[in-house]
Design goal:
Order of helices and strands of chain A: HEEEHEEH
Shape of chain A: globular
Number of helices of chain A: 3
Oligomer: homodimer
Strand content of chain A: 15-25%
């Protein structure tokens, strides 16, 4: 089996970069700075489906992404989650949250998605690609 | 600084056991089998506030708890999340989800909380204490 990104994730995101284990994606939702990590291993649904060494790499990648988002977006809180009730491929949400955002203090899942305008998406994507350049673990 | 459990977590949960790093708690909500890990370190809000070695222990504990819940509750999916928009002390939700549960496919946060009756809570708590006995990492 070869890894391939789930079509729903492909449709809803823009790619930022590859880290050691995971693809790093930007969710196409202008309400929230919302990144997604997808470990590039086939047939993985749960964290526990990963080999133990990959679970630890994933934790390091979650923390790397959180730290970059804290520095870049200056949020009030980082939300991290692995849900997968709709898209079965293991993917980790890392979302920068603000007390004034569209869903606070609730979770972002289920909140209305407002897609980025193409120009705004390209602008933020370009900045994030720079932020993560040369920072794969 | 000494670790002490946030009053809101104390009020909403029952204690199952101590693992190496975290307290393991059962959420008092009979809609979902819902466990919570709280790393026993003072003044921690984000995953990135933990020391790197504790982040890895936490990932191992999340996976241990997930595996025990998979074996015991036979869910369709495990949801894992660190949110903390309301309770600032770092705590990790590990929730066993079913396609027929009260919030599927949405997240459990924000869904109505139906507290366990005392007898039911004690019964499930007793079973979970046995499941996790002698399984600290």
């Amino acid at each position: 089996m070869i890894f391939s990104l789930h079509p729903r994730l492909q449709q809803d995101t823009f790619k930022i970069t590859d880290l050691t284990l995971s693809q790093l994606l930007l969710m196409n939702n202008r309400n929230f700075p919302w990144l997604i990590l997808v470990p590039q291993k086939p047939e993985i649904r749960e964290l526990t489906d990963l080999e133990p060494k990959d679970r630890l790499i994933l934790m390091e990648e979650i923390c790397l992404v959180s730290e970059k988002m804290q520095a870049f977006f200056k949020p009030d809180k980082i939300n991290v989650a692995s849900l997968g009730n709709l898209v079965p491929q293991l993917h980790i949400h890392v979302v920068a949250r603000y007390q004034h955002d569209a869903a606070w203090p609730g979770p972002v899942w289920g909140a209305t998605c407002v897609e980025c305008q193409e120009k705004a998406a390209k602008e933020i994507l370009g900045k994030l690609i720079t932020v993560f350049k040369a920072d794969s673990l």
